[in-house]
């Protein structure tokens, strides 16, 4: 009986008296299950080795075992671990098989392309990979996006976009989190390939509100999507060193300080007033997304006595009294009336 040696998912070398022959199994599930059976007879026993090749083989065997149970997610993790320790075209092919089963279509396309580019991929598996690529290319979603402002960050389902060799942005290839420093920046208009199903898109730009768009994409659809980024509100805080001072913005009374409110970016006229204090006035420029704090310092009024209203009231009363007294004192005594003799002309003088 010939010795059997396992080289990777999908490839089996059988050594016997007639030499070595290579067997390529075209059905993914069939060859993975077969490999599991064959590899189980040659699994290393005893203490685990630190040799990367041995570890890669162990990860492969574990992945094949999981495929037998249709545990695609766990199998994919095992094949990824094997590929990280010892990259191989067939292992990458198996990753594509698992990703296709899980509905991770863009990742499956990526894996099959990498496998095809590797000369180590057998012709039979290469033909299978090309067939899968045609199938997946018809199933993915293509979205032509257009923004009114160029976003600096775009996340789809929490992950940044990658870019393929054809210039398309691709979702689902990069891990969740902020984009890496060398991630490509999307222009205001671009096209992205994604898996069908529900998605959440987040677009960000400094000085603008975060844009969140939710949509469910049909399998194989090609749609156009126009989105608008809106300028972010600014935060305006107004306080005073004097209690009970009243705040107004552009002539609108807002109440007593402190006042905090969000306003659209722009220029505003702020006034803070209190009886007996000099009014504070100032112009504020509020940038998108910025926070501006205004602290009004009010000073007590210092008005001369001649500008006090009560001073002029008392003064007018006093002046009126002086004029009346002067008039009485300066008026001459009235002259006595001269007697007349009447019709007879007689005048009698008192002794």
Short description:
The chain is α+β, with helices and mostly antiparallel strands. Helix content is 31%, strand content 30%.
Keywords, separated by commas or semicolons:
351 residues, alpha+beta, Serine Threonine Protein Phosphatase 5, Tetratricopeptide repeat, Immunoglobulin-like, 3 domains, four-stranded antiparallel sheet, 19 strands, 30% strand
Description:
- The chain is α+β, with helices and mostly antiparallel strands and 351 residues long.
- It has 3 domains: 136 residues, Serine Threonine Protein Phosphatase 5, Tetratricopeptide repeat (Alpha Horseshoe); 87 residues, Immunoglobulin-like, CATH 2.60.40; 63 residues, Carboxypeptidase-like, regulatory domain (Immunoglobulin-like), CATH 2.60.40.
- Helix content is 31%, strand content 30%.
- It is built from 7 helices and 19 strands.
- A 5-stranded mixed beta sheet has the order 7-8-9-4-12, with no helix packed on it. Strands 6-5-10-11 form a 4-stranded antiparallel beta sheet, with no helix packed on it.
- A hairpin with a 6-residue loop joins strand 10 and strand 11.
- Helix 3 runs antiparallel to helix 4.
- The longest helix is centred in the C-terminal third of the chain and has 22 residues.
- The N terminus is likely disordered.
Radius of gyration: 47 Å
- Strand order, biggest sheet? 7-8-9-4-12
CATH class of the largest domain: Mainly Alpha
- Give average pLDDT, whole number: 80
State which percent range the strand residues make up: 25-35%
């Amino acid at each position: 009986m010939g010795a059997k040696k396992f080289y990777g998912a999908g490839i089996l070398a059988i050594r016997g008296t007639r030499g070595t022959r290579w067997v390529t199994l075209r059905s993914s599930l069939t060859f993975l299950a077969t490999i599991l059976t064959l590899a189980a007879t040659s699994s290393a026993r005893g203490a685990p080795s630190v040799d990367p090749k041995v570890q890669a083989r162990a990860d492969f065997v574990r992945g094949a075992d999981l495929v037998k149970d249709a545990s695609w997610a766990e199998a994919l993790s095992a094949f990824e671990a094997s590929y990280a320790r010892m990259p191989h075209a067939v292992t990458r092919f198996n990753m594509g098989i698992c990703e296709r089963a899980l509905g991770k279509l863009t990742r499956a396309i990526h894996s099959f392309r990498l496998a095809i580019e590797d000369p180590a991929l057998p012709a039979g598996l290469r033909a299978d990979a090309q067939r899968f690529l045609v199938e997946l290319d018809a199933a993915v979603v293509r979205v032509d996006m257009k923004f009114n402002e160029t976003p600096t960050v775009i996340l789809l389902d929490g992950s940044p976009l990658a870019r393929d060799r054809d210039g398309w942005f691709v979702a689902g290839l990069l891990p969740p989190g902020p984009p890496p420093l060398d991630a490509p920046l999307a222009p205001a208009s671009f096209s992205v390939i994604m898996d069908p199903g529900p998605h959440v898109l987040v677009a960000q730009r400094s000085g603008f509100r975060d844009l969140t768009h939710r949509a469910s994409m049909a399998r194989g659809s090609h749609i156009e999507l126009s989105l608008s980024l809106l300028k972010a509100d600014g935060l305006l805080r107004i306080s005073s060193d004097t209690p009970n001072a009243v705040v107004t913005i552009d002539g609108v009374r807002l109440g007593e300080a402190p006042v905090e409110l969000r306003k659209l970016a722009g220029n505003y006229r702020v006034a803070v007033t209190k009886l007996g204090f000099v009014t504070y006035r100032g112009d504020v420029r509020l940038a998108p997304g910025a926070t501006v704090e205004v602290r009004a310092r009010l000073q007590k009024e210092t008005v001369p006595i001649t500008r006090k209203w009560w001073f002029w009231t008392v003064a007018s009363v006093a002046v009126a009294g002086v004029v009346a007294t002067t008039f009485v004192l300066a008026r001459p005594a009235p002259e006595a009336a001269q007697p007349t003799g009447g019709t007879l002309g007689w005048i009698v003088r008192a002794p």
